[in-house]
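Form P-L/3: holo structure prediction, ligand copper (II) ion.
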Amino acid sequence: MTPQRYQFTFSLIVLMLLLVSCNDEKVEPITPLFVFKTNVDGAQLQKGTMKYTNKAGNIYQVDELQYFISEVQLITSDGQVFTIESDSAIHYVDIDIPATLEWTPTDLLPVTSYSSISFVFGINEAKNKIGLFVNPPERDMFWPDMMGGGYHYMKMNGKWKATGDTIKPFNLHLGIGMNDEGTVFYQNYFKVTLPLNIQTNPTRNEFTITMNIEKWFETPNLWDWNETGGQIMQNQDAMLKACKNGANAFEVSFSGK
Ligand SMILES: [Cu+2]
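OUTPUT (holo model):
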């Protein structure tokens, strides 16, 4: 190849690359789809069957699971933050209501590369006030006013085989905590950040957020119902322990085209 021809070929390649990247920038932003899944020990939750054993050795089952996630943010590889604002930035998940297992907010996300996703588990103190929801099922998540008010972050209801092989109910309910005197309140909602290494696409972008139930009982606090008892709504120490574990209970996967 002569130097001139080499230079011409090189310029052509540069031109084509420019065209391709310009085209990329013209792709219209699109709405994301969020899908919510619930696993135990790596497989989909089978509710109502006493088939699980947590790390502390409690045999247990889960019958109901309802929770809020809010303030979902997608962070691009160059550090831009896009917050999902639709539906007051709050989404309710109930494993018994299939429509809640998918969320299609109307927010537009640019088609680009993303390095992480974050969300709040529960609802922050600015929004977590009674009256936020007027209709069921969200309304039925209310948290008693005298205990701090607002809404449960989560209701996980089930049973465990207690000492002596008696089956006892548990209500792993999380929300605003308080001290014994009822004079100090604690915001227990927490932020979850999960790494992503993805490029979004022009037609479909599906983020699957999976809750791994067993993780609520593992790290950093080994969870033993025989110690905590089944009811923890008025036990701030237990709720805080659960929240620390819950921060490790989620994973995200992505698919798109
Ligand atoms: Cu409750």
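COMMENT: Residues 152, 155, 171, 173, 233 surround copper (II) ion (CB under 6 Å).
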